[in-house]
Amino acid sequence: MSFTYADRLAYSIPNVLGVYVYPVATYTKGLGQEVNWAVNGEIKLFAKGGRGFVWARAYDIFNSFSYQNNMLGSFYTQSTTFENLSRYIIFGATIRFDNMK
Fold first, then answer.
1. Which helix (H) or strand (E) holds 52?
2. What highest taxon heads this organism's lineage (predicted)?
3. What are phi and psi of 49, to 5 degrees?
């Protein structure tokens, strides 16, 4: 049995700055119990006139997520562990070439 909670928390100053936080929590009950969580984030700086923005995204900010799945059969016990790529940051820019709004 597994439950996952994911959300988006946002704070923005329109056409200037946007700060977004994405918490994720997973509860798994199998042979044992496990709770995992991670926090992803994003910052956007908007260009004047709405023509684009510059952004930075950080994944698993606290380097805390690892997932373990335990399976139990009549003749076996199996554990699978998944760990993501760890913490990383991506920078980028988005430019709008059209002027339609």
1. strand 52-59
2. Bacteria
3. 80, 5
pLDDT tens digit sequence for 33-79:
778 888 899 999 998 877 889 999 998 877 777 666 666 677 767 77
Residue 84, C-beta contacts closer than 8 angstroms, at least 6 positions apart? 38, 59, 60, 65, 66
Q: How do the domains of the chain map onto residue ranges?
A: 2-95
Give yes or no for a contact between 25 and 4, defined as CB atoms under 8 angstroms apart: yes
CB 15 within 8 A of CB 52: no
3 state SS of 73? coil
Number of Cα atoms under 13 Å in the Cβ half of residue 23 = 6
